[in-house]
Every structure is written in structure tokens, then in C-alpha cells.
Amino acid sequence: MDPSKVDIPLLKDLTIDNITENVHLINSGCPDPRLKYILERLVTHAHDFARETRLSTDEWMTGIKFLTEVGQICSDVRQEFILLSDIIGLSLLVDSIDHPKPRASTEGTVLGPFHTHDAESEANGSTISHDPDGEPCLVLCSVKDTAGKPLDAVKVDVWETDSKGFYDVQYATREGPDGRAVLQSDADGVFWFKAIVPVPYPIPHDGPVGKLLRVLKRHPYRPSHMHFMFDKPGYDHLITALYLRNDPYETSDAVFGVKESLLVDLGRVDADQARRYGVSEGAKLLTYDFVLVSDEEAKRLRESEAMKAMEALGRRMKLYNGLPVPDVD
Amino acid sequence: MDPSKVDIPLLKDLTIDNITENVHLINSGCPDPRLKYILERLVTHAHDFARETRLSTDEWMTGIKFLTEVGQICSDVRQEFILLSDIIGLSLLVDSIDHPKPRASTEGTVLGPFHTHDAESEANGSTISHDPDGEPCLVLCSVKDTAGKPLDAVKVDVWETDSKGFYDVQYATREGPDGRAVLQSDADGVFWFKAIVPVPYPIPHDGPVGKLLRVLKRHPYRPSHMHFMFDKPGYDHLITALYLRNDPYETSDAVFGVKESLLVDLGRVDADQARRYGVSEGAKLLTYDFVLVSDEEAKRLRESEAMKAMEALGRRMKLYNGLPVPDVD
């Protein structure tokens, strides 16, 4: 690189008090206004964090080592940074910001680190969990729009643990997906599959995030739940989960995911359903009516809430690809 | 874990507006007041960052992937998280906070990711760089206290790149340390060694941090410098570096390390010095008088500046092992 091409402000003698504005200055050459704004806020918060805590070099090095360990335990089937984001409530917050829900629609919740992209596409009625120790549970749900119209051909990704509380990917011996599938809603907006009753389980706590939870005296448990993810062109992507009411961890989820509207009571399969879906009468039954928001409505809501929030912060902003950036002209 | 032992606040239905206080609540069981305060600030800043940017799920995932890559490129000899901290000015800030300097003392600067713990202990006068292409440079320095008293037996860690701008650890073929040594000041507080004239070099930019610099349109160069680290019981640990004046990157250091007081002009070895130190007359000469601060003075200054900063922030704090924590009683 030709040093004569260095076209940036003069930076020297940076101190506790002037470093932040100077880092902004050198980053201000970023041509993408959104990335520039994100970096500006990130640097400000990182610096304010250090200034407000008077962070010591030892503490900083502890942080560097912790983040390095978090990165190094990640693999194709383990995402410890998502786990870290989950246990500090950041994941739930980002989902809430990005997927605002009008009153009548299904609320979202944390994705968690266990969704995979290799689940088999299955027909309605298929068995997604092959754990012989799991308690059978028929899942019989519908998916509609906010006007109550059934939505067909919605891609429904579902995943849950086995009866021991482990996802398939947590087994070193995993040969392929289990406890997960990709289904499609039928012409009536209905989808159904044979699963097992979810159980509470600890998030992976043998790594750095588990160590952090221990020093914070927090438990790593999540209440019993089943994950659902919905995709249909024209509708806002919905990541959610259903939680069993009265689970011992219902009000202390390690990743803050439980919402009242997502709590369910399991029912029992009646004679008619048993015949119709080929399961035993009296078996556990999970039913829920999901409601998707149109892309358009979600966008309108996301943008109006973003601008409202920016106004409340006293920032003069405009939207750029639907996301706020400073309004400088 | 026995769920009946779950002794934490009820958490459910968390939203953009109430998640932060609830994460604080669940973290408040942490028995270490300092860690509790650090976490409280960290969570607040992470959440405010997401709220102020209206961070999208895609952007969050980009961040998760970026941090994972940063962790995964780290190795025994590469520390990409330190590099990341360096290029956002956090490293310089933390050093400034942790090692406040009274007027008469030597300023600190960034450690950088290339210090190692395997440098050989060498006698004064030894040759620390064996690069035949480097321009020889005699380094002849002293180390004193703030009253001007020479300090003997100070452990002095020095490190620099070779003539191509690479540290020994950047070579896959590295067999042992080169361009680095651990020296000791003599009875007169003097230490000297044979090095090479430092050259400007890019920080490692083949990884995620380099990619970030590129999208920000920042160059990865550091001006020519030599690192010094001082240790002596009773004196505040000093991490610093000397920079060659008029380097093309003097005012645009990628990691914000340059300070006016650390700029040096290289001299020339005179006949007397040539004889005395066994180098050629006319060779390049780097001299500097370092001044260490006593532990006691550094502690006093660090604590008073911490309390002053807390007061300016309007926080009611007390010191705990010399670092601020909320004063709750």
C-alpha cells in the first residue's frame, strides 16, 4: 500500500477522553452507512463499558481468553457464541426487534443453537423422533394469517430433544438427523407429526458459557419445549417454540424464551383422532394454532417501531434498506 | 439440579423494554461484586447497542459468524481477539485506564498480539535480531524512577519484527524466538542490545479482522516501532513502544498506539560508543530514558481517577480490590 494514499485524519496522542471520537473518525470512511452506524454504536458502547467499569488489563485479558475459548469450542454442530448471546438475553431482544408481532399473531422466541439445515422433509403424519424411551405425543397444529385464513404450503421446521434432553447433534455418534423434520401445511393450513413429549434440559454447560453461568450462580436449564420455524413467501419468518405449562423451569429459562402466549397444556388423543392419525387413544396431544404476519405488515411495524425508538433516543435518523442510519445531509 | 432449589426471580414475557432489568435480576446472584458490576454494564451496553441500532437477525448472525471466525483463527501464536480490540481502540483505552501516568513518567501503549513468553534471557550487549537483511541498530537506554533514580535489575522484555515486517511467530517455520529477548538493567539503570531498525508493517490482515478493516476502507499498517515491557517489584508494569518519527504511518497507526512522547529520532553511534559496545561507528543508534512509576503512586492515581470518573458519571461507587463497584448498603 502506498503511504501517500493514506487519506485519513491525523491520529496521535489518544487518551481515555478522545480515543472514541478518533476511532469514529477513522471508521467514517466506511461507504456503507448502515455498517458505519453499527460500528459507531459498537465502538461507543465498548469504550463506555471500559470507562464505566475502569476495566483493568487483567480483566480485559480474562475477557479476551473467554471469547477465544467461546470461538474455539464452536464446530459444525456447536455454536457457543449463540449460546452466549442467548444467556445474556441478546438473542431474545434481537428477535423481538426484528420480528415485531401485531396482537393477533404468534409471538417469536429464541432460535437457540440447535437448529440444523439437514433435517429431512417429511410428510404429515410422519414420526420425527425415534427415541424408544420418549413418551409419544401427537402434534396437531394449524397455521393461519392474521385474518384467520388457513395458509397452505407453509414450510414448518420442527426440532426437539430426545427423552434424555439431548439434541441429535449433541451425540458424537450422530449418523443423521433425528428429533427434527421439515413439514408442510396442507390445504387446510394443518400439519401434524408424531413426536415425543418434550423434557427440560440444560443448555450445553461443559464449555465457557457453562463456566460463566456457574460463576453467576445461574442454572443452565430450559423448560420443556418444542421448536417451530415457519417460512412462506410473503410472510415474516417466524421462529418460535411451545412450552409446557407448569414445567419446573417455566419462570427461570436460562435463555429467557418463555412467553405466556406460547405455553401449552398437553391434551389426550380421542378415539376419533386415534383412528384418523394412527396413534393410540389417550396418547399425549399437542395442539396450537399459529398465526403468521405478512411481510408487508411486519415491515411496516418494524419500520414504524424503529423510527419511534430513534425519536425517543433523540436521534435524527432515516431508514436505509428498512434499518435506521443517521440522517445527514 | 433440583428445580425446587431454583431461587431466582420469575422471568417470563420478556420484551424489548423489560429484558435488560430481568437479565440483571437473574445475574444479581453473582457473589463477586466486581464481576456482577462488569456483567451489569456489559449486558446494558449489549442491549442498548441492539436497541439503538434496531439490530436485525441477519446482522446479529453476521456478528455471531464474525466472532466465531475471530476465535477460530486464534492459535498459540496468533491472537485475533487482541487484534480486534486493538483496531477498535479498546486496547489503548484499557491500558490508559489501568496504567495512569504522572507527568514525568513514560507513557504506555498497546501490547499488541505478538508478545510471547518464550523469549531468551540475554545479557546486555547481545544481538536480539538475527535477520541478515535488517539494518543494524544499537539500542542504548536507561530506566529510572520518577525522582530520577536509576533502577537496576529491571526485567526488560523487547520485541520487534524482522526487516520484512514479520514477527518470528508469523513464520510457520519458526523454530524458536528471534527478534525478541528479556534483558536486565545494570547497576546504573542502563540496558543495551543489538537490534535492527524497525520497519512499518501491516498487522495480520488475512483473517476476519483484516476483512473488517477492508470493508471499513482502513489500512492495516503500523508505523515502525520497537516494543518494550518493564517489570520490577514495587513498580507499575509498563507496556510501551518507541516509534520512529516521520514514519509514513506516524499519524494513522491501525491500532492507535502512537504518542508524541514515544517518538524517537535515530542517532548515529560515535567512535567512543562503537568501541565500548562493539558496533560500527556511524551505525544507527536508538536511545531513550524510560521512567517507571511506583506501584503505590500508580495505585493512588488509578484509584483517584476511577472515583473521579464514577462521580462524573453520577454513580455512587466504592473501591473493591482497587476497582469500582456499586456502593450499596
Q: Give the overall silhouette of chain A.
A: globular
Biggest pleated-sheet summary of chain A: 5 strands, mixed
Taking pLDDT < 50 over at least 5 consecutive residues as the criterion, the unreliable ranges of chain A are none
What is the class of the largest domain in chain A in the CATH system?
Mainly Beta
Largest interface: pair, residues per side? A-B, 95 and 96 residues
**Which value, in Å, is the CA radius of gyration of chain A?**
24 Å
| CATH H-tier superfamily of the largest domain in chain A | Aromatic compound dioxygenase
Q: Kindly, what is the distance between the CA atoms of the first and last residues of chain A, rounded to a whole number of angstroms? A: 32 Å
- Going across the biggest sheet of chain A, name each strand in turn: 3-2-7-8-9
Mean pLDDT of chain A: 94
Give the SSE layout.
The structure is a homodimer of 329-residue chains.
Chain A: H1 19-27, H2 33-53, H3 57-72, H4 80-87, H5 90-98, E1 136-145, E2 155-159, E3 180-184, E4 190-196, E5 201-202, H6 208-215, E6 221-222, E7 225-231, E8 238-244, E9 263-264, E10 267-268, H7 271-277, E11 284-292, H8 295-312, E12 317-320, E13 323-326
Parallel strand pairs in A: 1-11, 8-9
Antiparallel strand pairs in A: 1-4, 2-3, 2-7, 5-6, 7-8, 10-11, 12-13
Features of the shown structure:
homodimer, 329 residues, alpha+beta, Protocatechuate 3,4-Dioxygenase, subunit A, 3 domains, five-stranded mixed sheet, four-stranded mixed sheet, 13 strands, 20% strand, globular
